[in-house]
UniProtKB/TrEMBL annotation, chain A:
The keyword Isomerase does not apply. Residues 56-184 form the TFIID subunit TAF5 NTD2 domain. The keyword Calcium does not apply. This is Transcription initiation factor TFIID subunit 5. WD repeats lie at residues 390-424, 432-463, 474-515, 516-557, 558-599. PANTHER family: CANNONBALL-RELATED, TRANSCRIPTION INITIATION FACTOR TFIID. Belongs to the WD repeat TAF5 family. SMART domains: WD40 (SM00320). Pfam families: TFIID_NTD2, WD40. It comes from Hypothenemus hampei (Coffee berry borer). Residues 236-246 have a biased composition (Acidic residues). Residues 236-287 are annotated as: Disordered. Residues 258-268 have a biased composition (Basic and acidic residues). It is found in: Nucleus.
Automatic annotation (TrEMBL), chain B:
Residues 13-76 form the TATA box binding protein associated factor (TAF) histone-like fold domain. Keywords: Nucleus, Transcription, Transcription regulation. Pfam families: TAF, TAF6_C. GO terms for cellular component: nucleus. This is Transcription initiation factor TFIID subunit 6. Transmembrane segments: none annotated.
């Protein structure tokens, strides 16, 4: 690097400091750099930050692109497809350079000539880029900023890369050389060059593919054994049984049944994180009762499979033309929360028990705090209603999430806030203001206490219910983070973004530990498999992709939907994956078959497995009546619940 | 703006002219070309950005249509003040217009009558969102309930009927997953032509039994329910062949036994099946058409032709036939042509066929439209006249034949008068009419003259009803108006859902059945005795013309005034009710009825 460049950068830094009124730092830096002369005005910050300084002859761009294209086309078949990957980023950067340097006509003709022949999944981005025709359009433009400030990552075999390097050096095409050096990053690997299908499977994301380095960290994807509740809560259980005295045979039976159930779980998973990896508040007595209840329910579960088709109860929302944004069902399937466009949240009860509110303060004083059913007694019996509304947001509510103990509800909205609601007194408890832009998704951790949110501001954040500020901010996505999901062991969160990448973050460190590319459109739904090893993601590109978290490989691509997929769910037994979306259909996929086939293959980090496709995993398809599916859920006994919105207008 | 091609990366930009127009609208008179160009470019860029952002909000609201609120949110994100006051709950209905080489998409802005707004101070409350739980599938089998889509879509039913190989094996349609055994079979065999099986489950058999019993039973309320079920339930397609067989066999037996009531019930079943949107009926037309035809032209349909009102059945069946023609006529099956030919053949030998058949053929043709009537009936008026002249003028004729002839005359005058009026130019000459139309000439002449003098009410009436209810086909309007006084009337309103037609052969004067909200009213006066048939026949035209004026006997006049007026208004009333008051019901009905 020359001194001149250094100086330029320093000047830019000084300018930034000046802009933000950081005087002492500015002076300090000025002294240290011995830059006493006044900053010349024309070296503005943006020109330093962008890499487009080359003043190559605008006439040569088209020629060098054609030359590169010919080189790719004339190369040997085995290298052809890998080499082809550089065409798109080179075109984009050539275009941006031309636009930046004011040669708009040349840029447009270049784009019109070569834009349409790029891969179909790049067309959306090219359209967005084509909107940029002047230098000032690039200010604050999400996509151009991404291209400017990040290197486009291309994975290439050693042979292909050396071939390319030789070509670039031979030609001495300064334009091309500059772009390759400045804006492309080649992630080289040993071995045979990939074929077209392998390349297509993982390409499509903004910013290129994931580096191998991104997926090297170890992920504790296993599920830790459940804390031994039985010993802790022995008296609690007795009480439970005491209340079931009318049927004396029953408790005994249960006890004998429960023991093997619990002993099975004591087998510890080698991939599970240590139980104290993340701090979690202690379980309250109430939670323990709840967990016991859940396990008892789970023991009555029917296992689903291709031979044992599930049943599905569909909750169709009527009279709701274009007003419903989201819906969620509690873990125990007792309540349904719906978020509306007009900023209201409605909670419906799905069981005969009505939604009760707490007694007033003076009446609460009369309640004896020592009785064991104090939680029941403090509720006002006469206040039961079948649905309740929560008002407070000032924009569409894009996501709602119940806490595991069902006393709290989180919601996020276009008004940039996240709200925590009490489902006992039916009011807002906390407003979390941290995101500066609309919040797209919010999820409670499976253990409670923690929750995660994702936003238009391209970040995901981790929060704890008792902190106003986020605990972690996960930055790195190039575009909106559209959806978020907690790993079942709560140690990781997955995010899906409009930059078409799926990312797995470690909540203890805040680093990304998996970066997965392959989607061709924004991602709308994420679901972790029951075993914790696989992640399913789906979105606007109408495909469900299955990722193996152990190495971050794409293992399967399930196609069949015709419109955006909005929701995914695994059955409680983990055998079936369900997807539903705007095409008003619900598809059942045979997940057992998939996992069996994957585990039989030998997979390591450098060996990409073949991506499985095809109809053989599709078990069944069910249609609803003009009702897009917005939420899917399995009860503890494996009955499927779906939430659909009847579309009366377009039918 | 021109249409954007698929691969067009650059799309469209604002034109300089648009910029100038917009500038003028805010008072900037002389915008320079350069400035306009720069503005156009910049504004296009910004607009595209905002739309791109608005699409994000649309996606997250899980919609496929962009609403104004999305644009507002996109503006808010960019710290621009949203466009207040542009709110509609539904996507804007863009209208398209072209002309003079230009294409234009625009929003139709209706004028709002402020006076009306002020008087209607209570605005409609938005409907409450309701939650309806239902089974989507049970153990992998989707139940056929109104909340679910019909098990076999119409186009699939069509495919099956056209090409039985395409019919999926029973295993899949009934929802059971295929087993490994099944697969093996498919591998081994070269090609098994699947048999189209029509097994009915126990529930379906029960349903079939209940429905058929209710349809031909004596309980009118149950029948209404059964017909309602037939006309709206999805998933009847598996029972359809059996239903059709039931109807065909029923017609066959009851024609022989002259059981008028049962024939009417069976025709109403046909009507219900025709109304069911989820059925692909084409497959069974070859069976249904002969049965319906029988009910139109059969020589005898009742025990006492001189007393029983089999004319109503013929009228009703004729309307069914025209509905079949309208719904199913294609260039390959030529149903309309074939049916027209069938009736015309009957007319050609009008000397030989019984009078009741002649009536049926005439009615059947007239229901097929005025064009058919003009081409096929008009030239034959003379021979028809000759045929009935003998019956009406002669002395040694049975009562039944006299009645039949009277009906034919009445019918001919009713259907021909408007046509002749348009064919012939005034002045009307009685002699000319006599020469052209023989025996019927005089009556036709009288009717036409009457029609001409009463021109105003005739033209005004249908327009009035068209205004009040634009969806009412004009034919049904005229049906209502043209209903002969005192004759049996089945008054239909073709545009109404949940129609129930109630016919009765009991000796009641009028039965007015009004069921809940969406029902229509059916008047069923028993035909009055035969003595004054001819006079009524003559006056039937005056009825058309003189809806508002007098000219009938007091009692009858009152009746006709009240009924026809009420009915015309009713149709509009009902749609009004539908929109205004029954909204909740409607939306839920939409979900359960329409698919």
């Amino acid at each position: 690097m020359s001194n001149g460049l250094d100086k330029n950068q320093l000047v830019a830094v000084l300018q930034v400091l000046k802009k933000y009124n950081l005087k002492s730092t500015e002076e300090q830096l000025r002294k240290e750099a011995s830059l006493t002369e006044d900053v010349n005005q024309d070296s503005d910050v943006s020109s330093v930050l962008t890499g487009y300084k080359s003043d190559g002859d605008p006439e040569t761009y088209e020629g060098s692109y054609i030359e590169l294209k010919q080189f790719v086309e004339n190369s040997l078949d085995i290298y052809k497809h890998e080499l082809g990957m550089i065409l798109y980023p080179v075109l984009v950067h050539m275009y941006l350079e031309l636009v930046y340097n004011g040669h708009t006509d040349k840029a447009i003709s270049l784009m019109e000539k070569f834009g349409p022949e790029q891969d179909s999944y790049y067309q959306d981005d090219l359209k967005k880029l084509a909107m940029v025709t002047r230098r000032d359009h690039m200010n604050g433009n999400e996509l151009t900023d991404t291209f400017k400030s990040n290197q486009f990552i291309i994975r290439m075999s050693r042979d292909t890369l050396s071939l390319l390097k030789r070509h670039v050096n031979d030609k001495k095409a300064s334009v091309l050389l500059n772009i390759v050096q400045e804006h492309l990053y080649f992630d080289m690997y040993e071995g045979v060059a990939r074929n077209k299908r392998q390349i297509e499977a993982t390409s499509g994301a903004v910013g290129g593919e994931a580096k191998r380095q991104d997926n090297k960290a170890k992920v504790y994807y296993g599920i830790p054994k459940a804390p031994d509740i039985q010993i802790l809560s022995a008296p609690v259980e007795d009480e439970e049984e005491a209340s079931e005295q009318d049927n004396p045979d029953k408790p005994k039976k249960k006890k004998s049944k429960k023991d093997p159930l619990l002993s099975k779980k004591t087998k510890s998973d080698p991939n599970a994180p240590p139980p104290d990896r993340i701090p979690v508040p202690d379980l309250k007595d109430n939670d323990k009762i709840e967990q016991l209840k859940a396990r008892r329910e789970a023991s009555k579960r029917t296992n689903l499979g291709p031979e044992n088709s599930p049943s599905c109860c569909c909750y169709t929302l009527l009279n709701s033309n274009y007003t419903i944004c989201c819906a969620e069902i509690t873990e125990d399937s007792s309540m349904l929360a719906v978020g509306f466009n007009d900023s209201i949240i409605k909670v419906f009860t799905l069981v005969p028990q009505k939604l009760k509110t707490m007694k007033s303060a003076d009446k609460l004083q009369e309640v004896n705090c020592d009785v064991e059913d104090v939680l029941v007694r403090m509720m006002d019996e006469r206040s039961g209603e079948s649905s309740r509304s929560l008002c407070g947001h000032s924009g569409p509510v894009y996501s709602v999430s119940f806490s595991p103990d069902r006393t709290l509800l989180l919601s996020c909205s276009e008004d940039t806030t996240i709200r925590l609601w009490s489902l006992q007194i039916w009011t807002c408890l906390v407003v979390y203001k941290g995101h500066m832009f609309p919040v797209w998704d919010v999820k409670f951790s499976p253990l409670g206490y923690y929750f995660a949110s994702s936003s238009y501001d391209r970040t995901a954040r981790l929060w704890a219910t008792d902190h106003f500020q986020p605990l972690r901010i996960f930055g790195g996505h190039f575009s909106d983070v559209d959806c978020i999901q907690f790993h079942p062991n709560s140690n990781y969160i997955a995010t899906g973004s409009s930059d078409r990448r799926v990312c797995l973050w470690d909540i203890t460190t805040g680093n990304h530990v998996r970066l997965m590319t392959g989607h061709k459109q924004p991602i709308q739904a994420l679901a972790f498999s029951v075993c914790g090893r696989f992640l399913a993601s789906a979105g606007t590109d109408c495909r469900v992709l299955i990722w193996d978290l152990s190495h971050g490989h794409l293992v399967a691509e399930l196609t069949g939907h015709e419109k955006t997929i909005l929701c995914l769910a695994f059955s409680r037994c983990g055998n079936i994956l369900v997807s539903g979306g705007l095409d008003c259909s619900l598809k059942l996929w045979n997940f057992t078959k998939l996992t069996e086939e994957i585990s039989s293959e030998d997979v390591n980090i450098s060996h990409n497995p073949d991506v499985k496709t095809g109809d053989e995993y599709l078990l069944r398809t069910f249609e609803t009546k003009h009702s897009p599916l917005i939420s899917l859920h399995f009860t503890r006994r494996n009955l499927m619940l779906a939430v659909a919105v009847f579309d009366a207008i377009s039918n | 703006m021109s249409k954007v091609g698929e691969s067009d990366l650059y799309g469209t930009n604002f034109s300089i002219e648009s910029m100038k127009v917009i500038a003028e609208s805010i008072g900037i008179g002389n915008l320079q070309d350069e400035a306009a160009k720069d503005l156009a470019e910049d504004i296009s860029f910004r607009l595209k950005h905002i739309i791109q952002d608005a699409a994000k909000f649309m996606n997250h609201a899980k919609r496929v249509k962009l609403l104004q609120s999305d644009v507002d949110s996109a503006l808010k994100v960019r710290n621009i003040e949203p466009q207040y006051g542009f709110h509609s709950k539904e996507p804007l209905p863009f209208r398209f217009a072209s002309g003079g080489g230009r294409e234009l998409h625009f929003i139709e802005e209706k004028e709002v009558d402020l006076g009306e707004l002020l008087t209607n101070l209570s605005p409609k409350a938005p409907l409450e969102v309701t939650l309806r739980p239902h089974w989507l599938f049970i153990d992998g089998i989707q139940p056929t309930i109104p909340e679910n889509p019909p098990p076999v879509a119409k186009n699939v039913q069509k495919l099956e009927s056209v090409d039985p190989i395409n019919k999926k094996p029973m295993k899949e349609t009934s929802g059971k997953p295929s087993t490994g055994k099944q697969k093996l079979k498919n591998v081994e065999t070269v090609q098994i032509k699947q048999l189209a099986t029509h097994e009915l489950s126990v529930e379906q058999q029960l349903y079939y039994k209940e429905i058929t019993e209710a349809c031909v039973g004596s309980d009118e309320a149950r029948r209404a329910e059964a017909l309602q079920s037939l006309s709206s339930d999805p998933g009847l397609h598996e029972m359809l062949p059996r239903m059709c067989t039931f109807i065909i066999e029923g017609v066959r037996v009851n024609v022989v036994q002259n059981n008028l009531a049962l024939l009417i019930y069976l025709m109403r079943m046909v009507k219900a099946l025709l109304d069911n949107q989820s059925l692909y009926l084409e497959k069974y037309l070859h069976e249904l058409i002969p049965s319906v035809t029988t009910c139109i032209v059969s020589k005898q349909l009742c025990m006492r032709p001189e007393l029983d009102n089999h004319w109503a059945l013929r009228d009703f069946a004729s309307r069914l036939m025209s509905q079949i023609c309208k719904n199913f006529n294609t260039s390959t099956n030529n149903i309309q042509t074939r049916i027209t030919r069938m009736f015309t053949n009957a007319l050609q030998q009008c000397d030989k066929i019984p009078l009741s058949s002649l009536y049926g053929a005439l009615q059947g043709l007239s229901e097929l439209g005025t064009e058919v009537t003009r081409i096929f009936i008009l030239p034959r008026l003379k021979s028809i006249g000759a045929r009935i002249e003998g019956q009406l003028e002669g002395n040694l004729i049975s009562n039944a034949d006299r009645t039949a002839a009277g009906h034919i005359k009445q019918l001919v005058i009713k259907i021909m008068a408007p046509i002749i009026k348009s064919v012939k130019n005034p002045p009307d000459n009685v002699e000319e009419y006599k020469q052209d139309y023989g025996y019927l000439g005089i009556s036709l002449h009288a009717a036409v003259v009457k029609a001409r003098t009463q021109l105003t009410p005739i033209t005004s009436l249908p327009t009035v009803s068209n205004v009040t209810n634009t969806t009412t086909p004009s034919s049904s309007v005229s049906q209502i108006i043209n209903r002969p006084l005192g004759s049996t009337g089945i008054i239909q309103q073709n545009n109404q859902p949940n129609r129930t037609i109630v016919m009765s052969t009991q000796q009641q004067q009028r039965i007015a059945v009004q069921q809940n909200s969406q029902q229509k009213v059916v008047f069923m006066p028993q035909r009055s005795q035969t003595t004054n048939v001819s006079s009524q026949g003559n006056s039937s035209n005056t009825t058309v013309v003189k809806l508002v004026s007098t000219g009938q006997t007091l009692n009858q006049n009152k009746f006709i005034q009240s009924t026809s007026q009420k009915l015309v208004v009713m149709s509009s009333n009902q749609s009004y009710l539908n929109q205004q008051q029954l909204q909740t019901q409607k939306s839920i009905d939409d979900f359960t009825d329409i698919d």
